[in-house]
Amino acid sequence: MGGIRAGEKPMGFVGFSQEYATEEVCREKLFEKRWPGGFICPKCGKTSYSLLKARWRYQCNHCKHQTSPTVGTVMHRTHLPIRTWFWAIYLVATDKRGVSAMALSKQLHVTYKTAWYVLHRIREAMGNREESYILQGIVEFDDVYFGGKKPGSKRGRGTKKMKALVALSKSEAGKPRYLKMKVVPDLKGKTIGAFATKCIAEKSTIESDAAPNFRKPLKEKWLHKYELFDADAEMLTWLHTVVSNLKALIQGTSHGLDEKHFQRYLNEVCYRFNRRFHEKSIFDHLVFAVAHSNPLGLDALRG
Q1: Is the residue at 231 inside a domain?
Q2: Does residue 259 form part of some domain?
Q3: Model pTM greater than 0.90?
Q4: What is the largest CA-CA distance in the chain?
Q5: Which domain covers residue 123, as residue numbers?
Q6: What confidence tens digit (pLDDT) does each residue in 246-273 have?
Q7: pLDDT tens by residue, 205-228
């Protein structure tokens, strides 16, 4: 939202193909992102190394430990070329609609299963980067449900599907800035308070409806402004716009919900939204995130 600044458009397929034409170039790029200040041995901490090019391993000259830029990241033990990973990262980072595993499998020329694993690992890296940021200033805050309503339920409360908390910071002029989304087990005051404590800076102004489960946990640490929900009123406008876009993404790209992995869908949406004015550099940022995210085991993905 808010438009794209001149000169900020991503490089596109042709530009990507030229800049990352070989596997060697991609490995060197990943090395730079993994060790931006120069190589550091993960075992002994020394900085002198030799490149074993036949195996693409970096050997510490002090302790002889061998490693690679993919070890200990979400790319750990990958059998795919780094260039294939880079193209996947580029697509996930730059496609505003999101890329489905089926579409990714066609782009990468891999099986659906492989594309699905790659996609979720990239989303995990996105979530890891988002984890450390907090919202501040003026923040719209609400709950959202994904799924059908029970007969007679009000505005989603009482639905039988997944629940999430959504917070969106705004500028003084009322324009959207940064977004946080979290799948939660319930909408009790304790859960809402825990989310706010972790994601919203104290003394920020929080705007919400007047639901009792929001009022009590937000009354002390934040300036809480609330009013009774009115579907026809212009309240929480930007937040509801984001939620509507997310629901369209789920239906159009992800083709429904996968409860176990749904937080990663939210990670992807937040990551792109929070970098929407930096489309030219978002690929670089995501490569860095992938290079600094812990491994995601198959057990965490299965189910």
Answers
A1: yes
A2: no
A3: no
A4: 70
A5: 12-131+274-297
A6: 888 777 665 555 678 889 989 999 999 9
A7: 999 999 999 999 999 999 999 987
